[in-house]
Write a structure and sequence with these properties.
single chain; 178 residues; alpha/beta; 2,3-Dihydroxybiphenyl 1,2-Dioxygenase, domain 1; seven-stranded mixed sheet; 4 helices; globular
Length: 178
Amino acid sequence: MKFYRFSPVKDHATLLEAISHIHSECFKLCKASFGQYLPVAGNVGFFCHYDDEYEILTELRKELTEASDNENQKYFRLHEPIVIPASGDMAKTVYTHLYIRKPDIYRAQVGDIDFVMEPALYARHKKALQDGQVITGARIFPRADLDMIELYNPDVDALGYISVDEMTEKVRIKTNFT
């Protein structure tokens, strides 16, 4: 894995290039683990690696997303969705929410996206993982407050997360603006 492939990102064009990369890599992770592409929740996160990068991208995010009076909000609704065109066997994908993550020395990845899975199928895969079954590149996310399956590969600089629709709504705090 090449560390900090896009960082420091300083402009909109490079952020979009990074998001396209995150999209592609996460879809590959999904197919490698489950043999198919899952639908996305619409969330895309970019992981900053430098403090000044975070400041620049937070300002850019303010231009690209709806305002919020909740300083703890994680995902912000984009004014204009980010559309990734179909490529090969990957369908056209639309991202409606953006997350800019603060620098974290334990996250060298470029970013992450969230996938959704039908609840019964999700429960079956989660139980299999809990029972010790190996699903290549998939593991239960180790935070008790978030019910998700993490998609990973040490040679890939992106992470994917699978949950059910209800979990997707939990990570998006609603704004008080109309």
